[in-house]
Design brief:
This protein has 3 domains: 81 residues; 31 residues, no CATH class; 204 residues, Metallo-beta-lactamase, Chain A (4-Layer Sandwich). Helices cover 29% and strands 18% of the residues. The chain contains 10 helices and 16 strands. A 7-stranded mixed sheet has the order 2-3-5-6-7-8-9, covered by helices on one side. The termini are far apart. The relative contact order is 0.08.
Length: 330
């Protein structure tokens, strides 16, 4: 693009003979709102190469594309556009990365409207076995209707000279007892058991300058900045911890802690009402239960789950395999 060329001239050149000059300029000018000339022309070119666009009349373009479809068409690709274009307020998308698109800001704003918000609370610390303890802390924000109260479990385990944090969620700075305990024996690595258990892996990885293990796929709006070393069933991690398979095809890798004779689950099992149950899935229940039943070959004495009552006996695990599954929508 020549520096002396106007936006309209460049837009018309980009459009060629496919649409009228007025239409090309109109689209480019609309794209320019909240962005810059280069982006405007990029979006015009994307529009012109869209097989679904059949409108060549200026008024049709204005009505169908510029007016009705302006936000989704533009914000899909535009990382510079201001959130105010979509009517969002800064407080509606606090915490998003600075380069968040308007689409992300709209989504975050809508998500926050459905959240239940609570004041920070002191985490509950539970010693489970020698070298194994956990803390239970409540999310400050969580969606209504999830079937659980927003409290989640983070596990700390020591073995073979290594100290692992499993699915850690950080409490506030007021949780001095927890932070003092971690400072006394700092963790050496982190394990994320499931794509939607990213939680505060970035915070802990930075705070203690440690490596992290976990899945290789994540939810689009919850991708960690930390590069996680990929884990899958059958791996032996530092400290002798072994990754397992839960049968649900949801990229969860429960962790077997041989020294503590404990299996730590993400969401394969849950206990929101205190009783341990298998978490329902779209897959045939017997197939899932068959895989979980195979875990009885391991000499575990207890299991830890993320939601609800955290620690359960082997007998409770066996009983859960015979009970109806838990469904968060029931």
């Amino acid at each position: 693009m020549q520096s002396k060329a106007t936006l309209g001239e460049c837009a018309y050149r980009a459009a060629g003979l496919r649409v009228s000059k007025n239409a090309a300029v109109k689209i480019a000018q609309t794209f320019r709102s909240g962005t810059n000339d280069i982006d405007a022309l990029d979006y015009l070119e994307m529009y012109l190469h869209d097989e679904n666009q059949q409108h060549h009349d200026l008024h049709e373009l204005n009505a169908v594309y510029v007016v009705e479809n302006f936000r989704p068409a533009v914000t899909n690709k535009n990382w510079r556009i201001d959130g105010a274009v979509a009517g969002s307020l800064p407080q509606d998308y606090r915490g998003l990365r600075p380069a968040a698109t308007t689409t992300e800001r709209i989504t975050e704003s809508e998500r926050r409207k459905s959240l239940h918000v609570v004041e920070p609370t002191e985490p509950e610390l539970i010693d489970v076995a020698p070298g194994l303890w956990l803390w239970q802390v409540q999310y400050r924000e969580w969606p209504h209707g999830e079937g659980w109260d927003g409290k989640v479990v983070s596990t700390c385990v020591e073995s073979g000279g290594e100290i692992a944090l499993i699915d850690p969620l950080a409490p506030g700075n007021e949780a001095s007892v927890l932070w003092d305990r971690l400072s006394a024996r700092p963790p050496t690595f982190i394990v994320v058991l499931k794509p939607d258990h990213v939680r505060d892996v970035d915070f802990f990885a930075r705070r203690y300058n440690i490596r992290a293990f976990g899945p290789k796929v994540f939810h689009r709006d919850d991708v960690p900045e930390t590069e996680l070393e990929y884990i899958y069933p059958g791996l032996t991690l530092p400290g002798g911890f072994v990754t397992l398979y839960d049968g649900r095809n949801l990229n969860e890798t429960p962790l077997w802690l041989p020294e503590q004779r404990t299996i730590v689950f993400a969401d394969a099992l849950t206990a929101p009402q205190g009783e341990l149950l298998v978490w329902s899935t779209p897959w045939p229940q017997e197939r899932v239960r068959s895989v979980l039943r195979d875990l009885l070959k391991l000499p575990f004495e207890r299991v830890i789950v993320s939601h609800g009552q955290p620690v359960h006996t082997r007998k409770a695990f066996e009983r859960a395999l015979e009970l109806p599954p838990w469904d968060s929508h029931d």
